[in-house]
Specification:
Elements lengths: L1 E14 L5 E15 L5 E5 L6 H9 L6 E5 L9 H5 L2 E5 L11 H11 L4 H14 L15 H13 L5 E5 L7 H18 L2 E5 L3 H7 L2 E6 L2 E6 L1 H8 L2 E8 L13 E6 L2 E7 L5 H10 L2 E7 L3 H29 L3 H17 L1 E2 L2
Parallel strand pairs: 3-7, 3-8, 5-6, 6-7
Antiparallel strand pairs: 1-2, 1-4, 8-9, 9-14, 10-12, 10-13, 11-12
Bound molecules: adenosine-5'-triphosphate (ATP).
Adenosine-5'-triphosphate binds next to β1, β2 and α1.
Length: about 350
């Protein structure tokens, strides 16, 4: 998958008076370039309105880019949308591609015909997907009677019946309970290992990314802000996870090794913040050894917070660079400004690419 300076500009007309309309342009995707290799599983995240859906719609051929070059499985999505449809699968967590009133199996039969999947391949894929996604008891149930988790598994199977080499997943675990989420994630991991399916995953749940993707891309205002491992993103944003600890009884705030610290206490429950780029294991082991532990869970920071912190961090670095440049020019020394810039660059590149 390759994007080279891809743009998408929407013309928006807004009513501003009785007969007046104002024309405005929205640059939903702005000179976006990245490539994803065959078999990679990449998280594609960003705040609301960042341009994620617009990117995916261009990658499927639903939308035509306003500029730049785009290839998926070697195909130009705009020119050969139908040929591309046989090579890609798409799952939109919030909408179903299944026929609402038909039993699940009937939807699959329709897709068998629509995609002209050879009979033997259809049967082999259906058997495998039904087994892996545990759909056996649901095949005769109308889609509208399925729970959200069951419907999601049904949709994922539908997207994979024709053996696509690229899969776009838009919020595949949204609204699912913990068990259903685990099932979907386990399946995706297995699919990727077994078939080397390339996966582009859009999600607001950072645990999806943590458990599935070795690489994450952050987009905001249509631009690529970060490309690298999730831990690097946490480091770049200095984000924190929260360990929620339930103890047998009320005790004074837990004495945690810095930078971990208690941020809230409510009866026997305590909340500890710790750096998201670090493992929770040493902290958990220490608490388990020293306190009457009953239960605990780890909460991920939300994407908006991570990105907001990343901006703040970058603004801070820019201020530092500017201050260093001013100091240097006041002292008549040009190299100090260059050093400040290089230091922050080296730090960014060590973990991933913070794109400016
Ligand atoms: N058809 C359209 N016409 C005009 N503007 C659009 C259209 N589709 C998207 N936009 C605008 O483009 C920008 C990016 O939208 P997009 O849906 O790609 O964001 P997103 O990252 O998928 O957001 P979300 O997480 O909320 O789904 C937004 O400002 C949106 O209002």
């Amino acid at each position: 998958m390759l994007l080279d300076r891809v743009e998408k500009v929407f013309d928006v007309r807004k009513k501003t008076g009785f007969l007046k309309r104002e024309r405005r342009q929205v640059r939903a995707v702005d000179s976006l370039s990245f490539s994803v290799a065959r078999g990679e599983m990449v998280g594609y995240i960003g705040p609301n309105g960042a341009g994620k859906s617009t990117t995916i719609k261009m990658l499927t051929g639903i939308l035509t880019p306003s500029g730049g070059r785009l290839r998926v499985a070697g195909i130009d999505p705009t020119r050969e949308r139908m040929r591309l449809a046989h090579r890609i699968g798409v799952v939109f967590g919030q909408r179903t591609t299944l026929w609402w009133d038909l039993p699940l199996l009937d939807s699959y039969r329709l897709m068998h015909r629509m995609y002209r999947i050879p009979d033997a391949r259809y049967r082999a894929n259906l058997d495998r997907l039904v087994e892996l996604l545990d759909l056996g008891d649901l095949l005769d149930t109308p889609v509208r009677q399925l729970s959200l988790g069951q419907r999601m598994r049904g949709d994922i199977a539908a997207a994979l019946l024709h053996d696509p080499e690229v899969l776009y997943l838009d919020e595949p675990t949204i609204g699912l309970d913990v068990i259903s989420k685990t099932r979907v994630r386990d399946f995706l991991r297995e699919l990727n290992a077994e078939r080397a399916t390339t996966v582009l995953l859009t999600t607001h749940d950072l645990q999806d990314i943590e458990q599935l993707c070795s690489r994450v891309m952050v987009i905001d205002h249509g631009r690529l802000m970060y490309d690298g491992p999730l831990a690097g993103l946490h480091r770049a944003g200095e984000s924190e996870r929260t360990l929620v600890v339930d103890l047998e009884r009320e005790v004074p705030p837990i004495d945690a090794p810095a930078p971990a610290r208690v941020v809230r206490v409510e009866g026997p429950r305590q909340w500890l913040a710790f750096p998201a780029a670090e493992s929770a294991a040493p902290l958990v082991a220490r608490i388990a050894a020293q306190y009457p532990l009953v239960d605990l869970s780890v909460r991920e920071p939300d994407i908006e917070t991570v990105i907001a912190k990343m901006y703040a961090e970058r603004a801070g670095q820019a201020d530092q660079r500017e201050a260093a440049a001013q100091d240097a020019s006041a002292a008549g020394d040009v190299s100090a400004a260059g050093d400040a810039g290089d230091a922050s660059k080296g730090r960014d590149e060590g973990v991933g690419r913070v794109v400016s």
